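Homework help board

Subject: predicted structure for assignment chain

Our instructor gave us this sequence and asked us to write out the predicted structure in token form, then describe one feature. I got the tokens but I'm not sure how to describe them. Can anyone check?
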Amino acid sequence: MSLVIQNLTKLIDGHQTLDAISFSIAPGQIIGVIGRNGVGKTTLFRTINGQYLTDAGTVLLDNQVVVDQPALRTQLSFVDPQANFFRGATAQQVQWYYQAAYPDFDNAKFTTLLERYHLPLNRKLRHFSKGMFGLFTIILSVCTQAQYLFLDEPLDGLDVLIRKNILSILIDEAATGQRSIIIASHNLAELEGVIDRALMLKDGHLIHDYELETMRSQARKIQLVYRDKKIPAVVQQHGHVVSVSGRIIVVVFEDYTPALAAAIEATQPVFQERLPLSLTDLFMANLTDEQDFELLS
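My token output:
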């Protein structure tokens, strides 16, 4: 049962927050949605899950239009961390609500996970710490038994032990091969350790859909040193310059072929070295604007 997003478009206050975004997700994947603040990650999740009406485009599940088949929404779960309407309820009251909304809600798993992580069933959520509330929303999503779980900044502001617990829960769920987890996060270092794909948003558009294994085999991060401070045309044409310090240039090449390697060698750098490539490097390469740092030349 694949989830397909076709040309999803959303305007908010006259601004086109999402512009004809398309992608598909198969069961068993963990996908990261990355982009700068305000780029539309939360809007994307809210629109897919029906909290916002689409201005154009379609969400399909198992080749059926979700808006025409409300029962399909039980296969999508998004606990919006910015929604406060549950804050005055206890964990058990929220459980009752979700039992009504999700017919396959797993009560046994819910109780087991709350006990494992010492979350009180009868305490109101407004009295939970940030870490407790974050854990609770993950447990709630997991127990819906929905096939597609959408998580918005699930690791934000949490201590290292709680983050480890959350990631452990998510990896266990995806390991069954039956559920997919879509995570919007700025914590790129931890995200990279668990995701299979990264969807990169910029100015309301989906600009890249990276398969991480493919990216690691095709892309390179190279440090180059030249006698003068000029950046060769081939480097500017085929790479993303992520930093310049005097004569030292660090460049990300997303399609690093033998022909490109030979062309770079022909520019006669004084020194070149391959550096470890991370998701953060791809973020900086594609989303850094000129005003973010001054290129020295």
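Reply (TA_rk): Your tokens look well-formed. For the description, you could write something like this. The two ends are 52 Å apart (CA to CA). That's the kind of observation they're looking for.
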